Amino acid sequence: MLTNDAKIIKCIARQILDSRGSATIEVEITAKLNGEEISAKAAVPSGKSTGSEEAYEMRDADGGVLQVIESVEKKIAPEILNQPLDSEQIDHLMLTLDTTRNKKNIGANAMLGVSMAVIRLEAKVRKMPLWKIISEKSRFPVGKPKLYMNTLNGGAHADFCLPFQEYILAVSGETLAGANEKAQAVFQKVKNKLDEKNISYYTGDEGGLAPRLETLDEPFQILTDCIGDDPDIFIAIDAAASEFYDEKSGTYEILGNKYDRANLILIYDELVKKFNLRSIEDPFDEKDFPGFLQIVKFLGESALVIGDDLTVTNPLLVKKYGERKCATGIIIKPNQIGTILETFEAIREARSFGWKIVVSHRSGETMDSFIADLAVGVGAFAIKAGAHTQPERKAKYDRLVEIEKEMIQDEIAEKIKKEEADKARWREINS
Ligand code: PGA
Ligand code: ZN
Fold first, then answer.
1. Are the CB atoms for 201 and 210 separated by under 8 Å?
2. Distance (Å) from CA 57 to ligand 1 centroid
């Protein structure tokens, strides 16, 4: 069944609430194929500790989404109605509608809702799982990502109780289901440990535990104690250093102490040496690229240096910082750039520098589990999806477990298809 026979006949957007209770949009696209109408939906997440070069998130002055709904229905819809259901073509078309550097006219959130819904609908019409069509369109082999489960929250996501924004359990395993179970069990251990120590905490934006701890080492020590000697778990952080950077003095403030670039590198290095810290996201302010460059050199193979605010899923910025060797990994967030097509480009560019790919949620999330399919479909190194305690994050982990089953079914189906084709060939040869 060719998707090109399917034509888009409807494109609408509506307001939904994200995990923070803030407004965002859900887009629904309908296509017609042989007289039958088929629809798919997609919901757009929203960040808080955003990079300044991210594509424009269109919002009303009061935080509402009326403008962006109008953008989907009045600016995008008339252009894509009656077009063939082909996600690449639709993404290309949307990019011609807004040629501003940051998608200011149409809004990256409007575009992304359409982009995600179209590729999901195309998969549905072609009766394929979403991760499989993502692999086909991106031309990356599928793979099972490590789970970056955010366990302790600080920084802008938790009133700066802890200096870094995210302390993450990076869990791998033979199966995604097994890794997921293990991540949840260790998360529970961490919770119990805080209770045992009578340390109070509340819940951070991404569902992690947000305790107030006194020293830089403490959160790392707690995670280390709970991990034990499990070889399948290491610690990752998102320092989100732009949030504790003082541009005027060029220093970084952690727990009341100010550090220049060189001293901050020593702080990270000490943590890497003391604990099983193997992945550091945004260790410096997004404009401090010499900091990134120096820490990559300094840490060498001992820990990944991951760009997020630095690179904002933008292929041009990935190229710029890849050539300068400013990172060894990248956070991929489709809403930082606005279309799935450009998301694939950013991943391709990053891989050309040998960078590890970490597909990520946003701090304001929805129940849409698209990023789980994206992570598997592009064979990402890891997926960062918060703590399973929040339904919007759990949806991603649940979907990964479901995908794993789909992958087995798919393998069986492919095998049967191949055997039948072989048999048919033999019959032809022998007839
Ligand atoms: P954000 O945080 O979604 O608020 O930007 C996540 C991150 O910094 O990785
Ligand atoms: Zn980040």
1. yes
2. 14
Burial (CB < 10 A; 0-12, 13-18, 19+), residue 414, is exposed
Q: Which residues pair with 177 in a beta bridge?
A: none
The closest-lying atom of ligand 1 relative to the alpha carbon of residue 48 is: 4
Give percent above pLDDT 70 in the chain: 99
Those residues whose C-beta lies under 8 Å from the C-beta of residue 412, and which sit 6 or more positions away, are none
Provide the pLDDT for residue 319: 98
Confidence (pTM): 0.96
Pocket of ligand 1 (CB under 6 A): 47-50, 165, 238, 240, 308, 331, 360, 362-363
Give distance in angstroms: CA of 409 to centre of ligand 2. Answer: 35
Find the catalytic residue in 103, 144, 146, 333.
333
Residue 333 appears among annotated catalytic residues: yes
Q: Which parts of the chain register pLDDT below 70?
A: 1-4
State residue 426's pLDDT score: 93
206 part of the active site: yes
What pLDDT is attached to residue 157? 81
Which of 3.40.1550.10, 3.40.50.300, 3.20.20.120, 2.60.40.10 is the CATH number of 138-409? Answer: 3.20.20.120
| Token code pair at residue 114 | 């359409």
Q: Give tens-digit pLDDT for 253-262.
A: 999 999 999 9
Ligand 1, atom 4: nearest CA belongs to which residue?
48
**Domain ranges in the chain?**
3-127, 138-409
pLDDT at 174: 94
- pLDDT for res 3: 54
Tell me the DSSP string of 358-410: EEE--SB--S--HHHHHHHHTT-SEEE---TTSHHHHHHHHHHHHHHHHHHHH
Residue whose CA lies nearest to ligand 1 atom number 1: 47
- Superfamily in which the 3-127 domain is placed by CATH: Enolase-like, N-terminal domain (3.30.390.10)
If one residue of 308, 361, 390 were mutated to test the ligand 1 pocket, choosing by the most ligand atoms within 8 A of its CB, it would be 308
